[in-house]
Specification:
Order of helices and strands of chain B: EHEHEHEHEHEEEEEHEE
Distance between the termini of chain B: 57 Å
Shape of chain A: globular
CATH superfamily of chain A: Glutaconate Coenzyme A-transferase
Number of domains of chain A: 1
Oligomer: heterodimer
Number of helices of chain A: 6
Distance between the termini of chain A: 22 Å
Number of strands of chain B: 12
Largest sheet of chain B: 9 strands, mixed
Number of strands of chain A: 15
Structural class of chain B: alpha/beta
Radius of gyration of chain B: 18 Å
CATH class of chain A: Alpha Beta
Largest interface: A-B, 53 and 57 residues
Number of helices of chain B: 6
Shape of chain B: globular
CATH topology of chain A: Glutaconate Coenzyme A-transferase
CATH architecture of the domain at 19-98 and 149-216 in chain B: 3-Layer(aba) Sandwich
CATH class of the domain at 19-98 and 149-216 in chain B: Alpha Beta
Strand order of the largest sheet of chain A: 4-3-2-1-5-10-12-13-14-15
């Protein structure tokens, strides 16, 4: 399994039966295909759909039916369409149980940066700032270390923020961290990963949950 | 009374002047008013302020106006699909106000609903909070965001009746209904125009009061940005 597959395999466990879930663009979108059949959830797409279905068959493709990543999708039975103001009333109003988003950097205080690299790249925040401000639970998934070998888990973010102190849980290819009143806490290690490796590849300081130390 | 149905897009956009503020419906290329945009491109109106979630792609949608240098300023939430935009922005050739998508939607909604500004939790502690009023309400910090009203709104609906009642289809609804409320003059382009009374009042998404002009578009391209299908074996 590569890093992304490891992240996805772990992140899927965050999705519980009965939830209304928003999956961000990119790696989080891939989670949709991995949800076990016994878990019934409604996936929300901020462009105006509650109840995203699988990708369409070729003869079902409808240019009026896309997800927030602009991909053609279908709608599940019981799904609904609505306008963008309504969509963000759902998001900001705390009606989304779980948002899973990608990240560029996460800080030890639960800040998230994922929308811009000054001078180099600007995509825009899309709905991410609203999602982190309004969803009941915010989980960020990202690779632990950048392509250049730098830790993406920072003392404080160097990139422009998407939200301040908004992340509840961070899942990387190496570990799972929770952001608590007592600070950032390592709560799980990926298979074959040691505390020493995580410490070496993490710029942020963190506590270690006792169950992790015992293993 | 002159009817609301206009025969040509050329006429419908003819009084959009240089420097106008336009609220444009659509998300990505889904539900964009593609015929009105083409008419504006042909008219060559300059120095436009565009309020829209995205700015099209390089060769379609609002990207056409961008490539033609007709846009002075854009208020949008996501522009990642458009290289011309990214270049014009990074080179300082276009003024950009990046706005969180939900804030953008609510600013437009508020504009149409007569609410001049509102407090939102979105963006607190981020660069978009710079220079904005903040206030603690019940112990939590919020940003004051201002409403947006357009000189014109350009929207795309599925069906209209001759009075201007609109029905949208699937996720092509997106920003269109709120855009329709926030334009001083709203131009709705549609795939079908029916007689007054043919739409069930219960199915109308946008009441006619918000719509000043209706134009029938033909041969919609409705481009797909990312065609994704399941393979036959699945």
């Amino acid at each position: 399994m590569n890093a992304r597959q490891r992240i996805i395999k772990r992140a899927i466990k965050e999705i519980k039966n009965g939830m209304n879930v928003n999956l961000g663009i990119g790696m989080p979108t891939l989670l949709a295909n991995e949800i076990p059949p016994n878990i019934n959830v409604l996936l929300q797409s901020e462009n105006g759909l509650l109840g995203i279905g699988p990708y369409p068959k070729e003869d079902e493709v409808d240019s009026d039916l896309i997800n927030a990543g602009k991909e053609t999708v279908t709608v599940v039975p019981g799904g609904s369409f609505f306008d963008s103001a309504e969509s963000f009333a759902m998001i900001r109003g705390g009606h989304i149980d779980l948002a899973i988003l990608g990240g560029m950097e996460v800080s030890e205080t639960g800040d998230l940066a994922n929308w811009m690299i000054p001078g180099k790249m600007v995509k825009g925040m899309g709905g991410a700032m609203d999602l982190v401000a309004g969803a009941k639970r915010v989980v960020v998934i990202m690779e632990h270390v950048s392509k250049h070998g730098e830790s993406k888990v920072k003392k404080s973010c160097t990139l422009p923020l998407t939200g301040k102190g908004v992340v509840h849980r961070l899942i990387t290819d190496l570990a799972v961290f929770d952001f608590t009143d007592e600070g950032m806490k390592l709560v799980e290690l990926a298979d074959g990963v040691t505390i020493e490796e995580v410490t070496k590849k993490t710029e942020a300081s963190f506590n270690i949950e006792s169950s992790v130390l015992l293993n | 009374m002159k009817g609301k149905v206009w025969d040509t897009f050329e006429d419908a956009v003819s009084d959009i002047q240089d420097g106008a503020t336009l609220i444009v419906g659509g998300f990505g290329l889904c539900g964009i008013p593609e015929k009105s945009i083409e008419a504006l491109k042909n008219k060559g109106t300059k120095n436009l302020t565009i309020v829209s979630n995205n700015c099209g792609v390089d060769d379609w949608g609002l990207g056409l106006l961008l490539a033609n240098k007709q846009i002075k300023k854009i208020i949008a939430s996501y522009v990642g699909e458009n290289k011309i935009f990214e270049q014009q922005f990074l080179n300082g050739k276009i003024e950009v106000e990046l706005t969180p998508q939900g804030t953008l939607a609510e600013r437009i909604r508020a504009g149409g609903a007569g609410i001049p500004a509102f407090y939102t939790p979105t963006g607190v502690g981020t660069p978009i909070a710079e220079g904005k009023e903040t206030r603690y309400i019940d112990g939590k910090e919020y940003l004051l965001e201002k409403a947006i009203v357009g000189d014109f709104a350009l929207v795309k609906a599925w069906k209209a009746d001759k009075l201007g009642n609109l029905v949208f289809r699937k996720t092509s609804r997106n920003f269109n209904p709120i855009a329709a409320t926030a334009g001083k003059i709203t131009i709705a382009e549609v795939e079908e125009i029916v007689e007054i009374g043919e739409l069930d009042p219960d199915e109308i998404h946008t009441p006619s009061i918000y719509v000043q002009r209706v134009v029938l578009g033909k041969n919609y391209e409705k481009r797909i940005e990312r065609l994704t299908v399941v393979s036959k074996e699945d």
